[in-house]
Design goal:
The chain is an alpha/beta fold. A five-stranded mixed beta sheet has the order 1-5-3-4-2. Helix 5 packs across helix 6, helix 10 crosses helix 11 and helix 14 packs across helix 16. It is elongated, with a radius of gyration of 31 Å.
Length: about 425
């Protein structure tokens, strides 16, 4: 039967606890010394007569440290190991927040006992996504070390994602140490670069299998005085256009919109007896200044693509919060007065995107269905629509010729906690 007893804390034994590092700070020890243990420790009496602490490890150890003669102990019936650990997670979080290392270890131990992520979330009150992230981190040595080294659980989960890539891990570690607010930007850029590289590698293999030479330097559009030129610009000696069958090489890259693009070419068109009618109009090779400008454009466009994905995640989290961000109504009012056309696009042209920001699908009529969900606040829907209008009017061109509306929008996101990337700062610092 469950009952309360006064017991010498030195006689109590401590079960394996989820807290790896028991923190008996001076303030806590002083409080126990002055007031004693006010809330009973919860323990279980074993068959051998020993009493094992289930909850209240810190209070027990502080009582022993202060040589207290007795503390209140609530004796309970036996708990299953899984329930005991889950309850410790909850109790320790309520009394003194567990470190993320402690929490990940606790979730890991529960999973070893056969408890699913869904059950762990239900038992501990944690979000299932947090539990799943913690389990992935704990199952990977590199990610576990990152978590123990001070990274957040979110950061460590990203380390797990790239644990097979030493270069990526080094980039992420530098970002975590030197620019943690932009850690997600760094991660997204790595994802994008990986995707582009994989697309190019796959197409390269396909082109080379056809016996063609793959050219890696993108000079084809600007310097046609050399031996290489796209087949679309070439003609036979009789003036007939060429086809892909006449190509013996290709340049593989990505278009302005980020789509994979193959430019078929001939690597020595003069020797092949081909002609290039427009070659005198090219103006010769690019200058070093033009090449540098081109590299900047390519780099900033890639950075912009990565930032778009990070911003989308931030907007969804912002709108999923229990309350609107500070100054949201003022932002809406200013949007109506200064950027009415842009803001209204989130209701008209981009209503599907607004629905997506609110957790729905991006489709026709979806916003109405999302708005009808119980508990959906009208001011949150309005804010989402206005944010969607601003967001969808941004493009790669924005960093080159920013507008006042884009400046207002990104500046406000920065005020609300979004970590602007370097390419976005070009707009806000104009």
């Amino acid at each position: 039967m469950e009952h309360l007893e006064l017991i010498d804390p030195a006689q109590l034994t401590i079960d394996a606890n989820v807290r790896a590092d028991v923190q008996l700070d001076k303030e806590f020890l002083a409080s126990i010394k002055e007031h004693g243990v006010l809330q009973p420790v919860i323990a279980q009496r074993k068959e051998n007569g020993g009493i094992h602490v289930l909850f209240g490890q810190r209070r027990t150890l502080a009582a022993v440290e202060n040589s207290l003669a007795q503390i209140p102990v609530y004796i309970v019936d036996a708990l299953t190991e899984a329930d005991r650990m889950a309850k410790q997670v909850v109790e320790n979080d309520q009394r003194q927040a567990l470190t993320e290392v402690d929490r990940a270890e606790a979730f890991h131990q529960l999973s070893l006992l056969g408890v699913s992520a869904t059950q762990i979330a239900r038992k501990t009150g944690a979000k299932k996504t947090v539990v799943e992230a913690a389990l992935k981190v704990r199952a990977n040595d590199t990610a576990t070390a990152a978590l123990a080294g001070g990274m957040t659980l979110e950061m460590a989960a990203i380390i797990e994602e790239f644990s097979d890539d030493t270069t990526a891990i080094e980039q992420l570690e530098r970002a975590a140490a030197n620019d943690p607010q932009r850690f997600n930007h760094t991660a997204q850029r790595i994802r994008d670069d990986r995707k582009r590289a994989a697309e190019i590698a796959s197409m390269t293999a396909e082109i080379e299998a056809q016996g063609m030479t793959v050219v890696t330097e993108n000079v084809l559009y600007y310097d046609y005085k050399g031996p290489m030129a796209p087949i679309g610009n070439l003609r036979t000696a009789d003036g007939e256009p060429l086809t892909i069958a006449d190509a013996n090489g290709a340049y593989i890259g990505h278009t302005y919109n980020g789509e994979l693009n193959v430019v078929y070419l001939h690597t020595d068109w003069k020797a092949a007896g081909l002609t290039f009618p427009g070659r005198t109009q090219t103006g010769g090779p690019m200058t070093e200044e033009e090449k540098a400008e081109r590299r900047t454009v390519i780099e900033n466009n890639k950075a912009w693509d990565a930032a778009e994905k990070v911003r989308l995640g931030f907007l969804k989290d912002l709108l999923a919060a229990k309350s609107l961000p500070k100054g949201a109504l003022q932002f809406i009012a200013q949007a109506i007065c200064t950027d009415g056309h842009t803001a209204s696009d989130g209701i008209n042209k981009y209503s599907g995107f607004t629905a997506e920001l609110l957790g729905g699908s991006n489709g026709f009529g979806e916003l109405a269905r999302v708005a009808e969900k119980p508990g959906r606040k009208p001011d949150g829907i309005i804010l989402a629509a206005f944010l969607a209008g601003y967001e969808q009017n941004l493009s790669r061109q924005s960093w080159r010729t920013p507008t006042d509306a884009e400046w207002r929008y990104l500046t406000k996101l920065g005020e609300w906690g979004y970590a602007l990337s370097d390419v976005e700062l070009i707009i806000t610092e104009k």
